[in-house]
Design brief:
- The protein has 139 residues and is of the alpha+beta class.
- The protein has one domain.
- Helices cover 22% and strands 23% of the residues.
- The chain has three helices and nine strands, in the order E-E-H-E-E-E-E-E-E-E-H-H.
- The protein has a five-stranded antiparallel beta sheet with strand order 5-2-4-3-9.
- Helix 1 packs across helix 2.
Length: 139
């Protein structure tokens, strides 16, 4: 599949996010904040741009269909399924702080897509470090 990923940029300015289809320029890896922040620490400079929505969920943008085989607890991959896209609210490129959706890791023209291989490994590490329900109750 060829994409126009290298030609894509987020909306230039504006307060409200723009709903854009996952699967066209990128797929989005949706992760709850606790797991996502841990994975960000692990990835460091290997992370591309990351969106944080108003519910504190994090979204990495990756090459379309590059995570189709993933099956991770608490992690979802948003893309095109059977011709139907899932939409993600994408903040303007200059939206770097709350309130609302913003770039947790800023969009940089030559480095906004995250390589899915190190992201997958970072998510596995973050999930393994997460206390399970039995451990949470024992505190």
């Amino acid at each position: 599949m060829t994409t126009n990923a290298e030609q894509w940029t987020p909306p230039p300015t504006g307060a409200d996010p723009t709903a854009l289809p996952a699967g066209k320029w990128w797929d989005a890896v949706r992760v709850p904040e606790d797991i996502g922040e841990y994975a960000l620490d692990i990835l460091g400079a290997q992370s591309g741009a990351v969106i944080k929505d108003r519910c504190n969920t994090l979204y990495w943008l990756i090459k379309p269909r590059s995570a189709d085989s993933w099956n991770l607890h608490r992690v979802s991959v948003l893309g095109e399924t059977e011709g139907a896209a899932t939409y993600l609210g994408v903040p303007s490129v200059d939206r770097l702080a709350r309130p609302g959706s913003h770039w947790r890791v800023p969009f940089i023209r030559d480095g906004w897509l995250t390589d899915p291989r190190p992201l997958y490994k970072a998510l596995i590490c973050a999930l393994l470090a997460e206390p399970n329900d039995d451990q949470k109750g024992a505190r």
